[in-house]
Design brief:
Chain A: Forms an energy-coupling factor (ECF) transporter complex composed of an ATP-binding protein (A component, CbiO), a transmembrane protein (T component, CbiQ) and 2 possible substrate-capture proteins (S components, CbiM and CbiN) of unknown stoichimetry. Chain A: Keywords: Cell membrane, Cobalamin biosynthesis, Cobalt, Cobalt transport, Ion transport, Membrane, Signal, Transmembrane, Transmembrane helix, Transport. The structure holds two protein chains of two kinds. By secondary structure, chain A is mainly alpha-helical. Chain A has one domain: Orthogonal Bundle (Arp2/3 complex 21 kDa subunit ARPC3). Chain A is 77% helix and 0% strand. Chain A is built from nine helices and no strands. Chain B is mainly alpha-helical. Chain B is built from ten helices and three strands. The longest helix of chain B has 32 residues. A three-stranded antiparallel beta sheet of chain B has the order 1-3-2. Chain B folds into two domains: 165 residues, no CATH class; 81 residues, no CATH class. The chains are: A mainly alpha, B mainly alpha.
């Protein structure tokens, strides 16, 4: 019995080390969700996606150059997620770009760009999947950017210092993305005793190891990026109408 | 730059009509997900592996390395699915007791984990079959024919092309920062990375403006048309796909009530 217990503890510790190696651990992998939940998340993402497409269409009508800009913005987001982020815990991870993208391009555009980026990540990098694309888009390209953008605007309204609202937007955007993914997994796989809530606690506990340090790192990185942009690229930011209240 | 993309362009199945490969991958994936026992997902995994390694001639070593890629998520996710935490001793739970709380696994949970594991493996194999045999440009052209909104298809084409340009720019910046000790410590790492991202953003912005100007100068009217290589649809392939998928579907129905 004693040996069994030791083995079990050792196995658990080993498994807990695993996600840190895999930096994109929060993309729900292909085939992990049951069919009906995959379809459910696709359906839930659809209205946001259509709203995003319509808003892009409107912008393109005013200035056809927007299409090129968004094409490069999407590629920028893809490359951003492939960079190695220096992490506060020492293990390496990748930025999601959710907060930065939402502040720069707005949440509706990010929904469409995020969908395409996630599709490319599934096909070109084998991260995420086609059946889980709906669920991943909902957590990473709908909830994350909407939350980040809302927090950023709220921070501005409350006249918080800019670095604080940028940090909170990126940090909470990441955290909410991870909470959403946990909810998605918990809904699909409720615990036999305790149901969805217990399952959610389990999923959040396991993924917290990688996701909380990542959110902190990304928050810090986004502040520094934003400071550089403000110092050197004010004109471009103004064209994107980020500085809505002219500083 | 991406190994998967590279194999997609050099695989033996490159000249098969992309619609056939797309239909096979997606249909098989859905059948695999509909399965309620491990048999069909395992069959799908073997089938896709055989098709990729023996027919498309992708090196087996690379393919198996690719299969290990999602393991991190799979292990963490399955751990959360199987792990049961209950108060007091529970005879059905195999595991250890820490301070009156039982931490362990149950029989049904293990069965469920095995099913999820094989289903994920099968679905991932289908995804790999598609991405290792069909270049992105052809997948985009299928989406265009499936009446996906033109704006979306066009943006996908643009993004796909720019990924390589921006990736190269980012890579060069990274190397030159690294050669100046830009990633020596945690503080400088953050600073360098932020500088890289900000610069990359500015570069992308200006490149998009330049591109638009260049397109306008060549008579751009809001649409970029690409030449597509004509690919004949093969009746033989269609029959083969229908046969394989029908067999799998029948197997799903036959094994519906099996215990595992």
């Amino acid at each position: 019995m004693k040996r069994r217990t030791c083995t079990l503890i050792f196995a658990l510790l080993l498994l807990l080390c695993f996600p840190q190696q895999n930096a994109w651990a929060m993309h729900i992998m292909e085939g992990f969700l049951p069919l009906k939940w995959s379809l459910f998340w696709y359906a839930l993402t659809l209205p946001f996606f259509i709203a995003g497409l319509l808003s892009i269409q409107k912008a393109v009508k005013v200035d056809p150059g927007v299409k090129m800009l968004l094409g490069l913005a999407g590629a920028f987001a893809f490359v951003l997620s492939a960079l190695k982020l220096p992490s506060v815990t020492g293990s390496c991870s990748h930025p999601t770009g959710v907060g930065l993208g939402a502040i720069l391009f707005g949440p509706w555009v990010m929904c469409v760009l995020g969908f395409i980026v996630l599709l490319f990540q599934a096909v070109l990098l084998a991260h995420g999947g086609l059946t889980t694309l709906g669920a991943n888009t909902f957590s990473m390209a709908v909830v994350g950017p909407l939350a980040a953008y809302a927090i950023y605007r709220l921070g501005e309204r409350l006249s918080l210092p800019r670095w604080l609202s940028v940090f909170l937007a990126a940090f909470l955007g990441d955290l909410l993305t991870y909470v959403t993914t946990s909810v998605q997994l918990a809904l699909a796989f409720p615990a036999p005793d305790g149901g969805v809530m217990a399952a959610m606690v389990k999923f959040m506990g396991i993924f917290a190891i990688t996701q909380v340090p990542l959110a902190v790192s990304e928050g810090i990185l986004t502040i520094i990026v934003f400071n550089f942009l403000l110092a050197h690229n004010r004109q471009e930011l103004e064209q994107l109408r980020v500085l809505s209240r002219g500083v | 730059m991406f190994r998967i993309d590279q194999y997609a362009y050099t695989s033996r199945l490159r000249h098969v009509h992309p619609g056939e490969k797309f239909a096979f991958a997606i249909l098989t994936m859905f059948i695999c997900l509909a399965a309620s026992t491990v048999l069909v997902p395992l069959l799908v995994t073997c089938l896709a592996a055989a098709a990729v390694i023996m027919v498309a001639r992708v090196p087996a070593r690379f393919y198996f390395r690719l299969l290990f890629l999602p393991l991190g998520f799979l292990v963490a996710g399955l751990l959360a699915v199987t792990l049961t935490i209950s108060r007091g001793a529970n005879p059905a739970v195999y595991g250890l007791v820490i301070g009156g709380v039982t931490l362990g696994v149950t029989g049904p949970a293990l069965n469920q984990a095995a099913l999820i594991f094989t289903k994920s493996l099968g679905a991932v194999s289908c995804l790999y079959f598609l991405s290792l045999t069909t270049p992105m440009v052809e997948i985009i052209s299928i989406l265009h024919r499936l009446r996906v909104p033109a704006l979306l298809v066009e943006m996908m084409g643009l993004i796909y092309r720019f990924i390589f340009v921006i990736m190269e720019t980012a890579g060069m910046m990274y190397v030159s920062q690294g050669s100046r000790c830009g990633y020596a410590g945690i503080r400088t790492s953050f600073r360098s990375m932020a500088q890289l991202v900000a610069n990359l953003f500015a570069r992308s912005y200006h490149r998009s403006r330049a591109l638009y100007t260049a397109l306008l100068a060549r008579g751009y009217t809001g649409e970029i048309r690409m030449w597509e290589e004509p690919r004949p649809v093969s009746a033989k392939h269609l029959v083969l796909i229908a046969l394989v998928d029908l067999t799998l579907l029948v197997l799903v129905l036959v094994t519906w009530r099996w215990p595992v």
